[in-house]
Amino acid sequence: MNNLTEPFFYKRIMIIDDNEIDRYICKRISKTYHLAETVIEMETAMEALEYLISIKEYPECLPELVFLDINMPGMNGFEFLEAYKDLPESIKKNCIVVMLTSSTHNNDSKRVKEFSHVKGYLEKPLDEAKIRRLCSEEPVLNFS
Question: What is the 3-state secondary structure (H, E, C) of the chain?
Answer without folding.
Answer: CCCCCCCCCEEEEEEECCCHHHHHHHHHHHHHCCCEEEEEEECCHHHHHHHHHHCCCCHHHCCCEEEECCCCCCCCHHHHHHHHCCCCHHHHCCCEEEEEECCCCHHHHHHHHHCCCEEEEEECCCCHHHHHHHCCCCCCCCCC
